[in-house]
Write a structure and sequence with these properties.
By secondary structure, the chain is an alpha/beta fold. The chain has one domain: Alpha-Beta Barrel (TIM Barrel), CATH 3.20.20. It contains 11 helices and 12 strands. The strands form 3 sheets. The chain has an 8-stranded parallel beta barrel with strand order 3-4-5-8-9-10-11-12, surrounded by 5 helices. Strands 1-2 form a two-stranded antiparallel sheet. A two-stranded antiparallel ribbon has the order 6-7. A hairpin with an 8-residue loop joins β1 and β2. It is globular, with a radius of gyration of 19 Å. It starts with a strand and ends in a 6-residue tail after the last helix. The structure holds NADP nicotinamide-adenine-dinucleotide phosphate. NADP nicotinamide-adenine-dinucleotide phosphate binds next to β12.
Length: 309
């Protein structure tokens, strides 16, 4: 498994993360099997959010982690706060909500500390002073080691950084061979023929690279917003043909090529795999041994429906 040392953040972390959003669907025993498989494959990083299964994902993980017999100090547990889309229908980055959220996560995950806390999605009413106060308390109490954000723009990051003392070391963003809005603007800039020229996030990728913020790609195998996995999907014949050809060439499954495409980007991103199937996870982890060439990377990008301007 390829690892990275995150600047100002955790060291030696796996470039493939196990995302636990879909973990509520598993029994504790099956979740323990997933965690053991992840560990055997070299994954030492787990992504959560308070909202996944309304807390069920964290609860299942907390129970399964004990059954799996993994060592707490050998893994990085990340959770996210502030997203109340089901219960309260609002996003909330206020000091007390952040603090309450972390306490809830710690109790469900059955741990004393989070390695990483991310602000999940921007709260339109956020007051950076309140975030700063919450982070200060969480760091001082030892409840959180490192901090970051998710789905956050450069302007919001700059505003946070004016008040928050701790480095913001991660930005979790949507990125897959189908969902390429993170990079498209850079290729099609100033091109009136395609909507892909629209800069939808104020060049967040360049901002992150310039400021030592590691990008974590969420839903790396999905098309649309949770519409399904594009690998072996009949709507993506050209992409699957190229994934298949490169898979044969590198002796790995197609999903490994799709993940290797993300890992090949020079931003040194992590990819968050959301599968809850142990064999699917092993397939994905084979990406760690694949280093696509410059031309192969473009071949996949073009096969996913894009063109060279
Ligand atoms: N920050 C954010 O806003 C945000 C948003 C969404 C997600 N996330 C994070 O990103 C993680 C990953 O998201 P995701 O689950 O949508 O990602 P994903 O890895 O792109 O998709 C996983 C889904 O694809 C299915 N799938 C079908 N065939 C597969 C195959 N051959 N190999 C692998 N998977 C296959 C999986 O089913 P099986 O389980 O049957 O394999 C699973 O339902 C989440 O767990 C969460 O941690 C963050």
């Amino acid at each position: 498994m390829q690892t990275i040392d995150v600047v100002n953040g955790p060291q030696g972390v796996s470039r493939i993360i196990l995302g636990c959003m879909r973990m509520p669907a598993l029994s504790v025993q099956d979740a323990a099997t997933m965690l053991r498989t992840a560990s055997e494959e070299g994954i030492n990083f787990y992504d959560h959010a308070t909202c996944y299964g309304m807390g069920e994902a964290e609860t299942r993980f907390g129970d399964a982690f004990q059954v799996a017999g993994l060592k707490r100090e050998e893994v990085v547990i990340q959770s996210k706060c502030g997203l109340h889309h089901r219960d309260r229908k609002e996003f909330d980055w206020s000091r007390d909500d952040i603090l309450d959220s972390v306490d809830g996560s710690l109790s469900r995950l059955k741990t004393d500390y989070l390695d990483v806390l991310l602000l999940h999605r921007p709260d339109l009413l956020f007051e950076p002073e309140q975030v700063a106060e919450a982070f200060e308390r969480l760091e001082k109490s030892g409840k959180v080691r490192f901090f970051g954000v998710s789905n956050v723009t450069p302007g919001q990051l700059m505003l946070l950084k004016k008040f928050v003392r701790q480095p913001l070391v991660f930005n979790q963003l949507q990125f897959s061979l189908d969902q390429t809005q993170l990079i498209d603007g850079g290729l099609y800039m100033n091109n009136l023929k395609t909507e892909r020229s629209i800069d939808r996030d104020n060049e967040v990728l360049n901002y992150c690279r310039l400021n030592d913020i590691t990008v974590q790609a969420w839903s790396p195998l999905q098309f649309g917003m949770f519409k399904g996995c594009f690998v072996d999907h009949p709507d993506f014949p050209e992409l699957n043909e190229v994934l298949g050809q490169l898979g044969e060439q590198y002796h790995v499954p197609k999903t490994a090529i799709a993940i290797a495409w993300i890992l090949r980007h020079p931003a040194h991103m992590q990819a968050i795999a959301g599968t809850m199937n142990p064999q699917h996870l092993k397939d994905i982890c084979a990406a760690s041994n694949v280093n696509l060439t410059h031309q192969e990377w473009y071949r996949l990008y073009l096969a996913s429906g894009k063109f060279l301007p």
